[in-house]
Amino acid sequence: MKFGTAVILAGGKSTRMGFDKQLLKINQTRLLKLITDKLEEEFEEIIIVSNYPEYYTDFTYQVVSDELPNQGPLSGVHVGLKEASSKYVYFLACDMPYVNLDYIRFIKEEIEENDVAACVTQVNDKIEPFNAFYSQAIISKIEAYLATEKRALYSLLKRLDCYYIQEESARMFSPNLNMFLNLNTKEDLLNYYKDLVS
Length: 198
Ligand SMILES: Nc1nc2c(ncn2[C@@H]2O[C@H](COP(=O)(O)OP(=O)(O)OP(=O)(O)O)[C@@H](O)[C@H]2O)c(=O)[nH]1
Description:
Layout: E1 5-9, E2 25-26, E3 29-30, H1 31-40, E4 45-49, E5 62-64, H2 73-83, E6 88-93, H3 101-114, E7 118-123, E8 126-135, H4 139-147, H5 153-159, E9 162-166, H6 167-173, H7 186-197
Parallel strand pairs: 1-4, 1-6, 4-5, 7-9
Antiparallel strand pairs: 2-3, 6-8, 7-8
Helix pairs in contact: 2-4
The protein binds guanosine-5'-triphosphate (GTP).
């Protein structure tokens, strides 16, 4: 059964890619469309956070802009949580092409059972901030954190009551962990294409 909200963050500067990643096309189709088609299977609500709503006239989803702009990904997490109609909200970056619905169902259950601030995956010592769930309970904490002129999502997560899924569990769903891959550079894009045709 479909339920809950998925938010796609598409408000970044794409400096490393050199063109706006939210417009990225894979074989003539917007990556955003490929992502939302997949998320549609699991979520009853999809929200796109973009500061260019005019890029989404072909989409039927709600498009919202940052309420607290220029704070990086946390700007998007903040407004996404505020606009979502479910307590636990799934977040994905607009440049993450490998949507894994089985893993999404797994982490959704984890955050519901544990009722924590966020459910994120830890790979080596690194926290994967997307392909993760956050709770609306942290909206005021994000606001307080941004008010101190800090904006690093990782440091905020460390202060919160998070549930960390370990790498071995994640690999059971995605052996090469490509569900965390994001396309930051043209080289990433090239490797992704090579992967698609192989
Ligand atoms: N809404 C919103 N999303 C953001 C913002 N900054 C980054 N993001 C999103 O957060 C995710 C991760 O961002 P990055 O890829 O690290 O940053 P980026 O700005 O897109 O790219 P670079 O300029 O190359 O670092 C992407 O989905 C971005 O669209 C922002 O200020 N607002």
